[in-house]
Amino acid sequence: MKSKNKNAIARKKKEFRFHKIEMISNNKKISFGWHPAYVFLEKGNIYIYVSVTHSNSIKNGLVVKLKKNPNPKDIRDSYYVCEIKEDTKDRFRRRREGWLMDEEDDDAIRKLYQKLKKDDSADRT
User: Structure pTM?
Assistant: First the structure.
């Protein structure tokens, strides 16, 4: 049986949702929380997204400062994590109304996705 997601057409999205993350310590799940995520593609039952944070540095990763905080009620600096992730829709909460990604930041995220996708396909050959 074919997977629906494998052949699904990617649809462009521009929305913020809270993504379920699990905290693990000593190989035990100790809790979970919800973290803002910018969903920029939908492929069947999968969202493709980047995490958004206020921290200007993270463990094992690179962050890029956003031109404008997507949350209109927050004046603090915001960053996106330079790691494209995928997860099923059931691990996301409702859409965050009023949150908007700046067009320049959206373009940068999509270019990062295309670059990583291209690099990944080059590694397979």
Answer: 0.76
Token digits of residue 100: 């908007």
The contacts of residue 32 (CB under 8 Å, 6+ apart) are 20, 21, 22, 23
Residue 32's domain comprises 10-124
| C-alpha R_g of the chain | 15
Query: How many folded domains does the chain comprise?
Result: 1
E strand intervals along the chain:
10-25, 28-43, 46-53, 63-65, 79-81, 85-88, 92-95
> Residue 4: inside a domain, yes or no?
no
* Domain assignment of residue 5, yes or no: no
Token pair of 95, please? 């859409």
Cβ-contact 71, 78 below 8 angstroms: yes
| pLDDT, tens only, 4-49 | 445 555 566 777 776 766 656 666 656 567 778 899 998 889 999 9
